[in-house]
Design goal:
By secondary structure, this protein is of the alpha+beta class. It folds into 2 domains: about 120 residues, Jelly Rolls, CATH 2.60.120.10; about 80 residues, Arc Repressor Mutant, subunit A (Orthogonal Bundle). It has 7 helices and 12 strands. The chain has a 5-stranded mixed β-sheet. The protein has a 4-stranded antiparallel β-sheet with strand order 3-8-5-6. A hairpin with a 2-residue loop joins strand 11 and strand 12. Helix 2 crosses helix 3, helix 4 crosses helix 6 and helix 4 crosses helix 7. The radius of gyration is 18 Å and the shape is globular.
Length: about 250
């Protein structure tokens, strides 16, 4: 039976990211040190010699917040998060829902301060990647530079696709595109692409897709009635992947 949810923050060895080729620092996490790092020190507890430090972030806690000084990128080893932006009027927008393998913190490179809040949707585990170390490693090693560039490009393409979704799709197409994206990312991480638990609330999905909560709920209901999905609360099973893919592509 497929695992219904994404990767949880269980034992960090062996490294699943390295096994799938997603790790940005392969070879440095043979003996990772796991720590509960505070934001007061930039989320950077002392790294063990020859390795990396992993940070536990419990559900509802922040990895970093908007305005915090930028020092690190983070690769999500296990669990899931949401990136939240709050404007001057107090309105919230969800920028993305990273899952295992995602690179976080890119929003801090430009200004030297993080631009959003990274909040854990479940108990999660991140690899702390000091940005200065990544830059030095990239200068000395061309494959590392290429891998970092690809990771940054993937995040950039994510936001480009989101803009296209918000600009030209109706409510059902937006929700279908969102679910198809999660399905593909789950598959890339070695998990079931057809059955999983959504860790985010319907309200968060609405803020991400630029919709009202009621509209999101109706879209889920219609997809369920069309026998494209089985929806039971946050537990979701994709019954017709082809139909979901077509709808998510706006066809």
């Amino acid at each position: 039976m497929p695992r219904p949810s994404g990767p949880g923050p269980a034992s960090p060895a062996p490294c699943k990211l390295a096994a799938t080729g997603a790790c940005l620092v392969p070879g440095l996490c043979r003996n990772p040190k796991t720590a509960v790092a505070s934001r007061a020190n930039g989320g950077r507890p002392p790294s063990p010699a020859g390795g990396v430090t992993r940070r536990i972030v419990h559900r509802g806690q922040s990895l970093y917040r908007a305005g915090d000084a930028f020092a690190n990128l983070y690769q999500l080893y296990a669990g899931s998060m949401k990136l939240r932006i709050t404007n001057s009027a107090g309105m919230e927008q969800i920028a993305s829902f990273p899952i295992a393998g995602a690179l976080l913190g890119l929003d801090g490179i430009d200004t030297g301060h993080y631009a959003c809040d990274a909040i854990a949707l479940e108990d999660s585990l991140t690899c702390i990647l000091p940005f200065a170390d990544l830059v030095a490693r990239s200068r000395a090693d061309a494959p590392s530079a290429l891998q970092l560039s690809r990771a940054i490009a993937q995040e950039t393409n994510h936001y480009r696709r989101l803009i296209m979704v918000l600009a030209g799709m109706n409510s059902e197409e937006r929700v279908a595109h969102f679910l198809q994206d999660i399905s593909e990312r789950m598959a890339a991480g070695g998990y079931s692409s057809r059955e999983f638990v959504l860790k985010m609330t319907r309200a968060d999905i609405a803020r991400y897709l630029g919709m009202k909560i009621e509209t999101v709920s109706r879209a889920f209901t219609r997809l369920h009635l069309a026998r494209i999905l089985d929806v039971r609360g946050r537990h979701l099973r994709i019954r017709d992947p082809d139909a979901l893919r077509r709808l998510g592509a706006g066809r």
